Amino acid sequence: MRSNKNSKQNLRKAVILISGILLIINFWLLDYDNLFSRENLGKALGGLSNILLMAAMLVSIRHTKKERENADS
């Protein structure tokens, strides 16, 4: 059972890493001259979704750690 939890933990960390890379790419591709244009809206929303995904994975990792500590006590 322990290796299954570790693989889920590693998957969450991989999702955070990939999401961070995509966030950097989204910010790189933004046209800062026309920041509020329609073309930039998709990239900006993509960046926002990456931020929210990273936050969700961090909360999930933190919750899993607390559950594991409670189970061990």
- The oligomeric status of these chains comes to single chain
pLDDT < 50 stretches: none
| Tertiary shape | elongated
State the distance separating the first and last CA atoms.
18 Å
Give the averaged pLDDT, no decimals.
88
Query: Into which percent range does the helicity of residues fall?
Result: over 70%
Instruction: Tell me the major beta sheet.
Output: none
Provide the gyration radius in Å: 17 Å
Total helical elements:
2
Secondary-structure-derived class: mainly alpha
Q: What order do the helices and strands follow?
A: HH
Core attributes:
elongated; mainly alpha; 2 helices; 73 residues
Structure, explained:
With about 70 residues, this protein is an all-alpha fold. The protein is built from two helices and no strands. It has one domain (about 10-65). Helices cover about 85% and strands about 0% of the residues. The longest helix is centred in the last third of the chain and has 35 residues, at about 40-70. The chain is elongated and about 55 Å long. The model has no long low-confidence stretch (mean pLDDT about 90).
Care to give the gist of this entry?
This protein has 73 residues and is mostly helical.
What order do the helices and strands come in, and which of them pair?
Layout: H1 2-29, H2 38-72
Helix pairs in contact: 1-2
